């Protein structure tokens, strides 16, 4: 076992729930950084740009947060499109999502358009631009039937790629309230178009690529902290890192213990406030093992 040098945090359900910040979160992240660890936020929420997420964190009491510390499903989706040649401005992307996602796409050189960029013609009379060659579907709290219908037409009539930003089913808003996340929207277009979506976001290993290729992070020295088994913890297993479940979001301790052993997290903590102590404990154990091996 190697010491932990990098800690990746999910956002919703870990740093905050709905509009409320987890009380211990800002201090926990600050302490980890003071301990010399690299800290990043790896979130499946695609509704904001990375800069907007950094600004949101600063406004909630987190210190010295920059967009380079953020890996979002929107950013990874944009990078995926870049790899497919969509920086060519003649290849457009229709987004079933919020304005923040469209802006993140544009910030990365993608010619992304939304429903407001199209004529307000009846759906059946709308003339589709044949250069729209991808449809990205995401969490969208401004979702309308028109967005889904145009997305369906783009996929079917333009033979466009269907891309989902993430596979989360539900989003916690606090007070025990959950609302649909991105995956129900993706399923709607899969079912209506008859096409299978390429789904990015955690648990896809692509979410770790920017941290590995740009920052040089080693998965063997990385801890992923999240509140979901099927995204955060599965992501940790897919990339080969360790995973810690916190109980402030979707998943309960009972949920975690009810799945097969190989699907369980390495650690379970009540909240993000316990993470610095966990890292100290794990790293101390690594030092002890190193010393005993040497002897």
Please give a handful of descriptors for the protein shown.
Rossmann fold, 295 residues, 20% strand, alpha/beta, 5-stranded parallel beta sheet, 10 helices, 15 strands, 6-stranded parallel beta sheet, 2 domains, HAD_sf
Structure description:
The chain has 295 residues and is an alpha/beta fold. It has 2 domains: 6-44 and 203-293, Rossmann fold, CATH 3.40.50; 75-199, HAD superfamily/HAD-like (Rossmann fold, 3-Layer(aba) Sandwich). Helices cover 36% and strands 20% of the residues. The protein is built from 10 helices and 15 strands. The protein has helices at residues 25-34, 50-59, 73-83, 99-107, 145-157, 182-193, 209-213, 229-239, 253-258, 275-294; strands spanning 6-9, 16-17, 20-21, 38-43, 70-72, 92-96, 111-113, 132-137, 161-164, 170-174, 177-180, 198-199, 222-226, 242-246, 267-269. The strands form 4 sheets. It has a 6-stranded parallel beta sheet with strand order 5-4-1-13-14-15, sandwiched between helices. It has a 5-stranded parallel beta sheet with strand order 7-6-8-9-12, with helices on both faces. Strand 4 (38-43), helix 2 and strand 5 (70-72) form a beta-alpha-beta unit. 45% of the residues are buried. The model has no long low-confidence stretch (mean pLDDT 95).
Main sheet?
6 strands, parallel
Structural class: alpha/beta
Percent of residues in helices comes to 25-40%
- Under CATH, the topology of the largest domain is which? Rossmann fold
Mean pLDDT: 95
Beta-strand portion reads: 15-25%
Q: What's the end-to-end separation, in Å?
A: 17 Å
Strand order of the largest sheet: 5-4-1-13-14-15
Binding site for substrate: 202
Pfam families: Hydrolase_6 (PF13344), Hydrolase_like (PF13242)
Binding site for Mg(2+): 10, 12, 227
Active site: 10, 12
């Amino acid at each position: 076992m190697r010491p932990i040098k990098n800690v990746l945090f999910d956002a919703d359900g870990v740093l905050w729930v709905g509009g409320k910040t987890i009380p211990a979160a800002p201090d926990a992240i600050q302490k980890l950084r003071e301990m010399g660890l690299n800290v990043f936020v790896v979130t499946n929420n695609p509704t904001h740009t990375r800069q907007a997420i950094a600004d949101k964190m600063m406004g909630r009491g987190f210190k010295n947060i920059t967009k380079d510390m953020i890996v979002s499903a929107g950013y990874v989706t944009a990078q995926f499109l870049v790899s497919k040649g969509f920086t060519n401005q003649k290849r457009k992307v229709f987004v079933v999502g919020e304005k923040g996602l469209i802006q993140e796409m544009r910030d990365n050189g993608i010619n992304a358009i939304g429903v407001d960029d199209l004529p307000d013609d009846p759906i059946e009379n709308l003339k589709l631009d044949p250069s729209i060659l991808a449809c990205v579907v995401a969490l969208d709290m401004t979702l309308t039937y028109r967005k889904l219908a145009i997305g369906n037409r783009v996929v079917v009539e333009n033979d466009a790629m269907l891309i989902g930003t993430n596979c989360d089913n539900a989003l916690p808003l606090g007070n025990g309230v959950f609302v649909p996340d991105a995956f129900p929207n993706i399923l709607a277009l899969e079912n209506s178009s008859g096409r299978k979506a390429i789904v990015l976001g955690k648990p896809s290993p692509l979410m770790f690529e920017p941290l590995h290729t740009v920052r040089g992070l080693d998965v063997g020295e990385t801890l992923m902290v999240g509140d979901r088994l099927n995204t955060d913890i599965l992501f940790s297993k897919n990339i080969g890192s360790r995973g810690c479940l916190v109980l402030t979001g979707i998943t309960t301790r009972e949920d975690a213990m009810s799945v097969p052993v190989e699907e369980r997290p390495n650690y379970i903590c009540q909240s993000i406030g316990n993470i610095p102590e966990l890292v100290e404990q794990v790293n101390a154990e690594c030092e002890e093992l190193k010393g005993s091996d040497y002897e």
